[in-house]
Structures are given as C-alpha cells and as structure tokens.
Amino acid sequence: MAKNRRFNPDRDVNPWKGAYRPYDLAKEVIICFVVVAVMVIGLAVIFGSPDDKAVTIQRWSNADQVDFATTAITELDGTSGTATYGPPYNSTPDASQKVGPVSLESIAGVHIPVNPAQDFVLGPLSTVPNAPVLNAALSAYNAASSAQQQKWDAAYEEAVTKATVNNGKIVVPAGDYGPVAVMISSLTSMAQSGALDTSMINQDHFYGTDYTKSLLFVADGTYFANLGDAHHLSGGQWGMMNETGSFPGQAWLWLYTMWYQVWPFTSSWEPNADALIWALMMVLTLILLLVPFIPGLRSIPRWSRIYRLVWRNHYKERRI
Questions:
Q1: 107 closest CA partner among 275, 304, 315, 296
Q2: In terms of domains, do 262 and 280 share one?
Q3: What is the spatial distance between Cα 12 and Cα 30, in angstroms, rounded to a whole number?
Q4: HEC per residue, 219-237
Q5: Cys bridge to 200: 25, 50, 148, 214, which one at CB 3.0-4.6 A?
Q6: Do the domain assignments include residue 1?
Q7: 183/243 same-domain check
Q8: Which helix (H) or strand (E) holds 29?
Q9: Are residue 61 and residue 169 in the same domain, yes or no?
Q10: Cβ neighbours of 299 (radius 10 Å)
Q11: Per DSSP, what are the bridge partners of residue 169?
Q12: How far is CA 200 from the centre of its chain?
C-alpha cells in the first residue's frame, strides 16, 4: 500500500503480525481427495441411482394409444405445443418470451427448424413400404385443399377424445375424417413397432444422435408429463433438482429452480417466466463475480468476524 494513501478498512488489510506455521499442501490435497472419494463411493452405494427405461415413442404408443393419437392429430393440424412454440423451432407470431421489450428467442431466430406435420406425421408415413392403402390416403390428403385438410383434422381431433382401445387397436367413432383416420392408425402402428423412433432421428451426421424431434413429439403428449408428476419431477415439485422418486438430485440447481416457486414467476399470467428468471440469474451471477469490487459487500466477512470461527483454534492458542 502506498505510504501517501489513507488506510481504508473497507479496502485495505492490516499487515499480519501473528505467527507462521509450516504447511504441507500436498498432504492436504491427498487427504481431501481420499475423503471425498470415500464419501462419493459410499453415498453412491447407499443411495444408488434409478435406472428407469427411456421414454421412447414406442413405449408411449404402446402404453397409451389414445394419448398418442390425440397428440399426433395436433401435430398434423398445427395446434400442438411444438407447432406453436416459436423460435428456435418455428416462426409462430408472439410465441417467444421477452425480457422487457427484448425477445431473446427472436434475436436467435429459427435455427432448429421443425415442421411437426411434415416431420412427425407425413414424412415418416411416406417411408412405410408396401402400404397401398396408406399411400392412397396420403395422396388424397396431400391433394386436398388446405380448408378440406383442416376440416378432416378438426373432425378427427374432436372424435379421438372418445376413442377406445379394442384388441390392441385404437377405435375412433365413425365420422367424416377422410384419409386422416387411416393415417393416424398407420402412424400408431409404426410407433408401436419402433420404426417411428428410428425415422425421426436426425441423420445429418454419420452417427444419428439427434433426438430433438422425437423428444419434442413425446413432450407434446400427456403420457410423459404424467410420468414426471408421478415421480415428483414437474416444475411445481422442484423437478429440475430431483432425480426419480426420493433419490437425491442436482441440489446445486436450487437457486435457479427456487424462483419458479416464488411470486410473480408462479403466476399463470406470467408467460415470460423462463426469460425473466434467466435474466435474474445473470444479474445475480454478475454480482457474485463483482463481490471483490463492491464496497461494503466485500467487507461482510471482516465485519461479521466469521474468520474467527474458522480460525478458532488459532485465536484460542493466542489467548493462552
């Protein structure tokens, strides 16, 4: 510290005048590593981790055909969650969240384009081999006007809510669905065989590891959400920081997930909760990074004298 500068207790530190002791850093590192390793291995043996099977389209369609068919028709008519999501999947007007007047999603734009009707229904169905009835249905649907397609879609979407499963097949009340009933029935069969999962994997690379479309499709239904609720994994159950059941999860996420439980982010009228919470966390992170430079805040440890608790043995020996 410069001699001509006045001592500032909020910024400056008094020179250490106490005793010094030798310190073996290598020994401390080894001890800490061993203790942490024993704790990690021990807790892993005691608590373990759930090995639940992945929720695939095949598993979903076999477990709940009606929910699958109900979701499939919303993908076809453009009313599903994915179809109306907005950036980065599509350009649905006023769908993106905002921080004030700024829409972060719109700035990023549509860089993962997804067309649910084509990618989830029409495209996969066109790959089914040796299916003359299905091919005729697809031809009729594609040749129809947009108004006629919407009429068929709306009629089937209303009727599928009353559908039942008989001998392993979905049965929808009779109605004027045109080719839509054949298409959804064929898509259900395709899903139950596992072929739909395979057809929706992005094959842009040598290894097909992009499951974006299949995950979006599954998320649009209620089957996956119901599983999450049953395992206490939904947002209202602090699901982002839980593992399945009572297993410990990512506890370090508590600060982020906490805000979803606090007003006004819990209000149904707050459609921008995700964006606002992200902005809030960025502000808190910036404050944390700037703690050494914020007068008053940086001196809390010194004013609270918590260091005397940490070094209590040292101060005890000095009194002796």
A1: 275
A2: yes
A3: 34
A4: HHCCHHHHHHHHCCCCHHH
A5: 214
A6: no
A7: no
A8: helix 25-47
A9: yes
A10: 14
A11: 166
A12: 19
* Residue 294 resides in a domain: no
Contacts (Cβ under 8 Å, ≥6 apart) of 182: 133, 134, 137
Q: d(Cα 288, Cα 283) in Å, to the nearest integer? A: 9
CA distance 114 to 48: 38
Distances (CA, A) of 268 to 83, 222, 265, 280, 296: 21, 19, 8, 19, 38
Is 162 inside any structural domain? yes
Question: Which residues make Cβ contacts (< 8 Å) with residue 245, sequence separation at least 6?
Answer: 50, 231, 232
- Give yes or no: residues 77 and 147 share one domain: yes
Token code pair at residue 151: 């009429």
- In sequence order, the 6+-apart residues with CB closer than 8 A to the CB of 112 are 88, 89, 212
How many structural domains does the chain have? 2
Residues 93 and 214 in one domain: yes
Helical ranges in 160-246 per DSSP H: 180-193, 195-199, 212-220, 223-230
Domain boundary among 206, 225, 244: 225
Q: What is the pLDDT along the chain (320 residues), one digit of tens a residue?
A: 456 677 776 777 777 777 777 778 889 899 999 999 999 999 888 877 667 788 899 999 999 999 999 999 999 999 998 988 888 888 877 666 666 676 776 777 778 888 999 999 999 999 999 889 999 999 999 999 999 999 999 999 999 988 888 887 888 888 888 999 999 999 999 999 999 988 887 655 566 678 889 999 999 999 999 988 888 777 777 766 666 666 666 777 888 888 888 888 877 556 778 888 888 999 999 999 998 888 888 888 888 888 888 888 877 776 65
Judge if 137 and 197 occupy the same domain: yes
Helix (H) or strand (E) segment spanning residue 165: strand 164-166
220 and 240 part of one domain: no
